[in-house]
Amino acid sequence: MSYTDLFSKLDLSKNESKIYESLLIEGESPIGHIATKSNINRRNVYDSMNRLIEKGLVFEILQKNENRYKAVDPRKLMEVLKEKETELQKVMPDLEELYNGKPHEEDVYVYRGIEGWKNFMRDILRIGQDAYVIGGKGAWADPKIANFLKEFLKEADKKGLKTHALYDIEIQKTNHPILSLINREHRFLPEGFSSPSTVTVFGNQVVVQSGFKIGQINENATCTVIVNEFIAETFRTWFKFMWEASKISDK
Fold it and tell me: Could you give the C-alpha distances from 46 to 15, 51, 237, in angstroms and in order?
């Protein structure tokens, strides 16, 4: 198993990642040996090795004939990650001020895939108002976002946010895990009124979600976000009508 892709996500170049992994495997080694094992030109190995030393991930062992190099304990990577997180936390208030400095009263944009879905959920926390779901399909129970959902629910509880969900009838028929996973107020749409999409309303946003199956979010899923206070209020009014007309949950 190769870890070079993982190392690349930690701000290491492709060559740095390959060299660091080679040193982890081979142990203390001279440049020539690392060049062979990592399949990188010797001159490029020197350049990347110097950068790894600067980053504190490799140290040089002075020898009479040829110096050797050794990887630092990989736990150092956690330190690197925490340092970057600390740096980001320091400027986060400034970044949020820039982001919120010019509020978007009207806008339309699209989030895609798993990461796009997470962005939609982050927006709920950021706006800090209750969410109203029409045609829910239990997508929040997808195992791919399990850890993210756990943190989301913790933060939502801290902010006192509630989710009011009108699920498709299939959720009730299958006793879908979403009903116990997210212990929020919910009812079910009547038989024959299930749809291929879901609408979630919160604050001044209406999010139309499509391209996913019950309980599953895939990379083709889309969240079309409409930012408009009047449209959002219209959907909330429709939600209230459907809520009153829908079967009260006994789950």
Answer: 11, 9, 66
